[in-house]
């Protein structure tokens, strides 16, 4: 059955891919945006709205009267995200949005969480098993939003599903993030100074993450689901794959920067629950094809 769906963050890094996938599935998509004309996709309806303005946000959800809310919007994922005090602004805005949506008759919320909600000392992150014990303001804010919306949905008789992406790369990635930094440096003929790169991480192309959120939103699933590859890849190998694709391995300087002292050796998604759920989704990109796609975008637009 076709639904009317609000996608917050629908002009952003992840959300634009969620919008595309929902439209392809035949749903009506409404995207609140604070910037007119920013990354608009044909077929979606864009409404000017600052989600951190309680009055404007409430007016939006009451006017739209959507069936489902896909909440992806958050402070821009740039340098300093993990410890930024502004995360608490989005915590408050997210809870207010959830309440207003449910008060307006909304029946389902799909929340974009983060691997940063987990206790990273576990290494392997398993839904409903690994403790939610974040060590950053960002992770703590995301956990708080999930707990708050869970309680609200139970009272309202609505459903909630949370998708937890891991380490995301792809077109339109901010240049302060690792893969974008390395790609732009090499394309511009500059050295890419990196740490030792022995950290093991779970990387996903942003289009796969956006599609994962879309699939969760229109499913009947509730609870928490990882959105990742389930594979631990050395950061060094991602960097070297970029260098190989660009053709400038000489510019990569492994070990030129110190790795943060607190950085865990391993962070990877256990994908057993997501795969067993029969969710209408699976990653389309390998690391090689994803890196190539990202480099192609940066050559053209970056």
Cα shape: globular
> How many helices?
9
- The overall strand count is 15
Largest sheet: 7 strands, parallel
> Averaging pLDDT over every residue, what do you get?
94
Count of individual domains: 2
Plain-language structure description:
The chain has 9 helices and 15 strands. With 302 residues, the chain is an alpha/beta fold. It folds into 2 domains: 191 residues, Rossmann fold (3-Layer(aba) Sandwich), CATH 3.40.50; 79 residues, UDP-galactose 4-epimerase, domain 1 (Alpha-Beta Complex). The strands form 4 sheets. A 7-stranded parallel sheet has the order 3-2-1-4-5-7-12, with helices on both faces. The protein has a 4-stranded mixed sheet with strand order 6-15-10-13. Strand 1, helix 1 and strand 2 form a beta-alpha-beta unit. Helix 3 runs parallel beside helix 4. The protein is globular and about 55 Å long.
Key phrases:
302 residues, alpha/beta, Rossmann fold, UDP-galactose 4-epimerase, domain 1, 2 domains, 7-stranded parallel beta sheet, 4-stranded mixed beta sheet, 9 helices, 15 strands, 19% strand, globular
């Amino acid at each position: 059955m076709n639904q009317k769906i609000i996608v917050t963050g629908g002009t952003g890094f992840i959300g634009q891919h969620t919008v595309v996938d929902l439209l392809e599935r035949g749903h009506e998509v409404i995207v609140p945006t604070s910037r007119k004309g920013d990354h608009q996709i044909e077929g979606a309806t864009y409404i000017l709205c600052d989600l951190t303005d309680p009055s404007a946000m409430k007016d939006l959800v009451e006017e739209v009267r959507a069936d489902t809310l896909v909440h992806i919007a958050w402070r821009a994922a740039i340098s300093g995200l993990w410890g930024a005090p502004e995360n608490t602004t989005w915590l408050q805005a997210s809870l207010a949005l959830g309440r207003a949506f449910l008060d307006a008759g909304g029946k389902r919320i799909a929340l974009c969480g983060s691997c940063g909600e987990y206790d990273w000392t576990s290494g392997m992150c398993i839904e409903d098993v690994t403790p939610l014990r974040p060590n950053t303001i960002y992770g703590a804010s995301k956990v708080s939003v999930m707990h708050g919306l869970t309680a609200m949905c139970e009272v309202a008789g609505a459903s909630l599903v949370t998708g937890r992406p891991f380490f995301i790369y792809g077109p339109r990635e901010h240049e302060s993030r690792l893969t974008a930094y390395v790609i732009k440096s090499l394309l511009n003929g500059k050295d890419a100074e990196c740490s030792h790169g022995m950290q093991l991480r779970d990387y996903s192309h942003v289009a796969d993450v956006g599609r994962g959120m879309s699939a969760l939103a229109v499913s009947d699933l509730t609870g928490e689901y990882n959105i990742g590859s389930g594979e631990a890849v050395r950061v060094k190998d991602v960097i070297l794959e970029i260098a190989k694709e660009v053709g400038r391995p000489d510019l990569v300087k492994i070990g030129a920067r110190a790795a943060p002292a607190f950085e865990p050796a391993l962070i990877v998604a256990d994908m057993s629950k997501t795969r067993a759920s029969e969710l209408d989704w699976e990653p389309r990109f390998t690391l090689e094809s994803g890196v190539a796609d990202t480099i192609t975008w940066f050559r053209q637009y970056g």
